[in-house]
TrEMBL record:
PANTHER family: ATP-DEPENDENT CLP PROTEASE PROTEOLYTIC SUBUNIT, ATP-DEPENDENT CLP PROTEASE PROTEOLYTIC SUBUNIT, MITOCHONDRIAL. Belongs to the peptidase S14 family. One of its GO terms (biological process) is protein quality control for misfolded or incompletely synthesized proteins. One of its GO terms (cellular component) is endopeptidase Clp complex. This is ATP-dependent Clp protease proteolytic subunit. One of its GO terms (molecular function) is ATPase binding. It holds the Pfam family CLP_protease. It comes from the Bacteria. It comes from candidate division WOR-1 bacterium DG_54_3. Gene3D superfamilies: 2-enoyl-CoA Hydratase, Chain A, domain 1 (3.90.226.10).
Length: 476
């Protein structure tokens, strides 16, 4: 298990390839007469991409231990990030990942028994036994374990988010949590008697896990079982807090007013770390950065590992250089998976809302910036978003994929989730431009009828006119 320099100024502890479970099913793997239960699923919602997600995926655990050596004051709110106390877990939860996370939790607890440990969770789920190993480590140490859910957090990973210390469990504004029963794939062939034993094991494991969730959330186990039985239960950030599974939403929002039409505030840090209740930071007196000394690149299709790398680089740069801007360069990107794009979008907005701190600028170049990548381009700091003159923005309809032999009820459920994501994306695009949600929806609807149309194409000049960007560069 070698070290990999995956992020600058970060230590990537593990970088191993694992197979991601396919949509709408978990699996039982038989190894040496031992069954491994999987709770794992990713919502396969693309932004303008029809191809199915690759089953090969890199799991990763990373920490930011190199940052405290710089002796720079942490610019981030402690609910979200503390340099030497933050662990980033991305990808499927495997036994190898669990061992590394457990070791890091105990190591950080030994260093300081009072300061909270922050666990970022960006995972579709995975091995139940591995998840329980992480849960036991979280409960075994004295420091509070603060969890931050980002992107699409499903199954066992969603349970871990709820297993953090009460009052210290957070979610980024646009993250989605999904809970469901433990499942197995139909391709597993067993004898009748062994199949019955396996079914009972699945039901018992589901009952135990949801019992733990009930204890963590203050809900009644029977109600949780009834609600999650036989289906995937999706929760937005607000819904999951209302249900009691998590405690607060990390939510930087834009507000409008005659005195500050493009101002930002951070709201809704419902946290015991605060001394004064609701935190509201006014950014009118924001100090302008002295210059840009770093950049992060996105080129091609946006997937899990691209998003993890970009988030790590953005946070590392701002933590090391709080007064300097960082540039997100997007070139020839056809879009990608919505949950991966939205977690980058949330982190960008959080950074841009920090007082006395540098901003995330964006720059688009190449042939076209499409789908979720177009939202990232428009999500840079207002006044600091650029696009090359020959580059187009392409707004696309959401494309979803359903599992083979899915029942009508499941297909309908996937369609509802796709509609939910589409409304969210259109709302975000509208809030970062001069176009209303109705106008954007109407323009996208026009191209749906044309099967050969690649989407609603916006030239660089039009993108500037509609305030998706602020400046058109003369050369590509």
């Amino acid at each position: 298990m070698g070290r990999v320099a995956f992020y600058p100024n970060m230590k990537a502890i593990i970088n191993n390839r694992t197979a991601r479970p396919s949509m709408d099913r978990a699996r039982i793997k038989r190894r040496s007469r031992r069954k491994t239960l999987w709770m794992g699923e990713k919502n396969f919602i693309d932004s303008g991409i029809e191809s199915k997600r690759s089953q090969k995926f890199k799991s990763m655990v990373a920490c930011f231990d190199a940052l405290p050596e710089m002796k720079v004051e942490n610019p981030f709110p402690e609910e979200f990030f503390i340099p030497d106390r933050t662990i980033y877990m991305a990808g499927s939860i495997t036994a190898e990942v669990a061992k590394v996370v457990r070791g890091l939790i105990h190591d950080k607890a030994d260093r300081d028994k009072n300061k909270p440990i922050i666990l970022w969770i960006d995972s579709p789920g995975g091995d139940v036994d591995a998840g329980i190993m992480i849960k036991e480590a979280m409960e075994a140490v004295k420091p509070k374990i603060s969890t931050v859910a980002m992107g699409g957090v499903s199954s066992m990973a969603a349970l871990l988010a709820a297993f953090g210390s009460k009052g210290y469990r957070y979610i980024l504004e646009d993250a989605i949590l999904m809970y469901h029963e433990v499942r197995y794939a139909s391709e597993v062939v067993l004898g009748a008697e062994e199949m019955q034993k396996t079914a009972k094991e699945l039901m018992d494991t589901t009952d135990d896990l949801f019992g733990m969730l009930a204890n963590a959330s203050g809900n009644v186990k029977e109600k949780i079982l009834n609600r999650f039985s036989g289906k995937d239960a999706y929760f937005s950030a607000e819904e999951v807090v209302r249900a009691g599974f998590l405690d607060g939403v990390i939510e930087p929002v834009r507000y409008y007013g005659p005195a500050n039409p493009w101002g930002w505030k951070i709201v809704s840090y419902r946290s015991p770390l605060q001394k004064t209740g609701k935190k509201v930071i006014d950014l009118q007196d924001k100090i302008e950065s002295s210059g840009m000394s770093g950049s992060v690149s996105l080129r091609g299709f946006l997937d899990d590992m691209h998003s993890s790398r970009i988030i790590g680089q953005l946070v590392s740069h701002i933590a090391l250089n709080p007064k300097q801007d960082v540039l997100l360069k997007i070139k020839d990107s056809p879009g990608g998976f919505i949950d991966d794009g939205m977690k980058i979008f949330d982190v960008m907005r959080l950074i841009n809302a920090l007082p006395n701190c540098g901003d995330v600028m964006t720059s688009g170049s190449g042939g076209s910036i499409e789908g979720i990548s177009a939202l990232l381009l428009s999500g840079g700091k207002y006044g600091k978003r650029e696009i090359s003159s020959g580059t187009r923005m392409v707004l696309k309809d959401i494309v979803v994929s359903a599992p083979a032999h899915a029942p009508a009820s499941r297909v309908e459920e996937i369609g509802d989730e796709a509609d939910r994501f589409e409304k969210m994306l259109i709302s975000k695009l509208s809030s970062h431009s001069d176009l209303s949600p109705e106008t954007i929806r109407a323009e996208i609807a026009k191209v749906k009828e044309d099967e050969e149309a690649e989407g609603h194409v916006i030239s660089a000049k039009e993108a500037c006119k509609y305030k998706f960007v602020d400046k058109v560069l003369a050369k590509n």
